[in-house]
Amino acid sequence: MISSLAEVGRPTALIIHGTAEVLDLLTRWFEASRLDVVSAVTAFRARAALEGDRPIDVVIAPWDPTHPIGGEVYRWVLAHRADLRNRFVFIADEVTPEFDTIVGGRCLAIPLQEVEEMVRVAAAIVRRVRTLPHGIPIIRDRDRPTLLIVDDDPPLLEAMARHLFDEGYTVTQMESGNQAIDLLERREFDTIVCDWHMHDGSGADVYRWLVKHKPQMATRVVFLSETDGDDAGSVAPGRPMFRKGQDAQALITILREIVDVVRAG
């Protein structure tokens, strides 16, 4: 009997396969395990699903010489959706040296016959994707405002995520400005908390990108800094900046004010 996945707001699996019969079989397996399934028979359709608004928790795809579609989609993910690179379960009887080189140990390859193991691994991926650091569950609740936190200090990022989750936000974390920009190309958030100084894309870079590409979101940004001397100034005039570790209540107040304006509009 196929083991069921714990239901956390109905996780979604993208199942990719170039053979219709196998695609249908995989769809039935994973639907029986309480996942919503999006299927794709071509790499183009798979990329369209990955670029869409619907969150994808886990991807099932083949990787072998007969079915190169999985490798094609994974290479695209590495270039365009790096946040999904460790959400794949590959179907393969044997893996090639190329697989190990490209995947780099981030994903497992499982024979098609081992459905129980495939479902078990997919369940583990869903639990990881739906959980923030230290076991905080991600709640996909429309009543919760969405908040993006961007900071290249992982311990601080985790602490802020926990605190803002407790304050009622659905929290997404990114560890660099460039990662955040890649995400913001595809998604919108009610508010954004962004570190001013980061090595791989600064807060200023994020703000300039928003002004150019999504100006409606530029007014939703709050910046953090490690020093008192920093000022958004000429780059982001009028945007609040808070010293890290201080004025937590003032930060919460500003975020609520931003959300109220966004939700009222």
What are the main properties of this structure?
265 residues; alpha/beta; Rossmann fold; 2 domains; 5-stranded parallel sheet; 12 strands; 41% helix; 18% strand; disordered N terminus
Give the biggest beta sheet: 5 strands, parallel
Strand content: 15-25%
Please compute the radius of gyration using only Cα atoms.
20 Å
Instruction: Provide the spatial order of strands within the biggest beta sheet.
Output: 2-1-3-4-5
CATH topology assignment of the largest domain = Rossmann fold
Helix and strand composition category: alpha/beta
User: What would CATH call the class of the largest domain?
Assistant: Alpha Beta
Note the gap between the termini. Answer: 49 Å
- Which segments are poorly predicted (pLDDT under 50) over 5 or more consecutive residues? 1-8
Helix content: 40-55%
Which second-level CATH architecture of the largest domain applies? 3-Layer(aba) Sandwich
- By CATH, the superfamily of the largest domain comes out as Response regulator
Specify the oligomeric state: single chain
Give average pLDDT, whole number: 84
By DSSP, the count of extended strands is 12
Layout of helices and strands, plus pairs?
Layout: E1 12-16, H1 20-32, E2 36-40, H2 43-51, E3 58-62, H3 69-80, E4 88-91, H4 97-103, E5 108-110, H5 115-129, E6 131-132, E7 136-137, E8 146-150, H6 154-166, E9 170-174, H7 177-184, E10 191-195, H8 203-213, H9 215-218, E11 221-225, E12 241-243, H10 248-264
Helix pairs in contact: 2-3, 7-8
Provide a compact summary of the structure:
With 265 residues, the protein is an alpha/beta fold. The protein is built from ten helices and twelve strands.
